Amino acid sequence: MLIESRYAFFRGEIRPIEEANVSILSAVVNYGLAMFEGIRAYWIPERGEALVFRLHDHIDRLRRNGRILMMDLPLSREDLAARVAELLAKEQIRGDAYIRPLLYKAAHEIGPRVHDSPCDLAIFVTPLARYVDTVGGVRAIVSSWRRTADNAIPPRGKITGGYVNAALAKSEAALAGVDDAILLTEAGAVSEGTVSNLFLVRGGRLITPPVTAGILEGITRQTVLTLAAEAGIEVVERVVERSELYVADEVFLTGTATEIAPVVEIDRRAVGGGVPGPVTQRLANEFSRAVHGGSTRHADWCTVVRIG
Ligand SMILES: Cc1ncc(COP(=O)(O)O)c(C=O)c1O
Predict the structure, then answer these.
(1) Among 21, 119, 277, 292, which has the minimal tally of Cβ within 10 Å of its Cβ?
(2) CA distances (Å), 165 to each of 11, 30, 148, in order?
(3) Is the CB of 40 under 6 A from ligand 1?
(4) Active site members
(5) How far is Cα 213 from Cα 266, in angstroms, rounded to an integer?
(6) How is the chain split among helix, strand and coil, in percent rounded to 5?
(7) Residue 223: CB within 6 Å of ligand 1?
(8) CB 124 within 8 A of CB 20
(9) Interatomic CA distance for residues 295 and 81, integer angstroms
(10) Which residues, in sequence order, are bridge partners of residue 104?
(11) Inter-axis angle of helices 77-91 and 55-66, to 10 degrees?
């Protein structure tokens, strides 16, 4: 999935992508000192508009998480949202798009540290249709790699260097011939997917690991919790054990890139009937309606950008 951006917001301006380069001397390259967001924009062809999903919530998460690495976002909420809209309009993507703000340590210095180290913000936008098979479903393994602990590299921070952990697990899955991996915590509890949160359905109840299970506090996860409550589905946030994955009626992954993806097989065992289940499908339909601007109750989740 190659990035096809023609422009980037870099050093305070939108520039051609060829001018948006950081040095090999920078702390972000040498020590993985950055954090990022992933935001989706859904293309509405009949209106010539992109709907950016929960843009302000993503900006707020980046600002909050910045404290972990002692980084301040250099733009206000409104200014950052305006730069995103400008970039989207400039790229002229007539399809779904992915927006990547990256807050990174720019200093050229030997030795990793987070304090007294300047940071900068870059943003790029690229076309992104489907990231995984949200229709047929995902085949997964439980990774032999453990999710990095909060007191090692906090997964809640969406920290660039922490994604080595996701990359190891994703490659383990791909090389084993399946689509994705599920990570356990050091204590052996279910954490999340490589770039997604995880839900189970057992006896009609929705279950998801708590925010203390080494997860990113996903915005799609939060969206699903809201949609499920509105649909009258009981939701429990609790510790999930590995074998529950094998006996669950349904399992699905959630994330900005992933959207809502049914998991149909885990460790060579069919999940439920081995096909996407009814609760997953119901929530995926509600989600799709919301992100395409079809939910009057949640109209504020979508920021409209005119593409022309
Ligand atoms: C590790 C990890 N967990 C969960 C998620 C899902 O979070 P969100 O729904 O905010 O995209 C992501 C994707 O951004 C992720 O990278």
Answers:
(1) 21
(2) 29, 17, 7
(3) no
(4) 158
(5) 20
(6) 30, 30, 35
(7) no
(8) yes
(9) 22
(10) 34, 120
(11) 120
Q: Which residues of 189-211 are buried (b: 16+ CB within 10 A; e: fewer)?
A: bbbbbbbbbbbbbeeeebbbbee
Q: Whose CA is nearest to atom 16 of ligand 1?
A: 195
Q: Which atom of ligand 1 is nearest to the CA of 222?
A: 9
Categorize the per-residue pLDDT at 1 as very low, low, confident or very high, splitting at 50, 70 and 90.
Answer: confident
Each residue of 17-75: pLDDT tens digit? 999 999 999 999 999 999 999 999 999 999 999 999 999 999 999 999 999 999 999 99
Regarding the beta carbon of 214 and ligand 1, being less than 6 Å apart is answered no
Q: What is the pLDDT of residues 160-188, one digit of tens each?
A: 999 999 999 999 999 999 999 999 999 99
User: Which residues face 50 on adjacent strands?
Assistant: 43, 305
Paired tokens of 231: 């649909």
C-alpha torsion sign, points 201, 203, 209, 210: positive
If you measure from the C-alpha of residue 109 to the centroid of ligand 1, how many angstroms do you get, rounded to a whole number? 31
What distance in angstroms lies between residue 195's CA and the mean position of ligand 1's atoms?
5
250 in contact with ligand 1, CB cutoff 6 A = no
User: What number of other Cβ atoms are within 10 A of residue 229's Cβ?
Assistant: 12
Judged by DSSP in three states, 249 sits in coil
Helix (H, G, I), strand (E, B) or coil at 304: strand
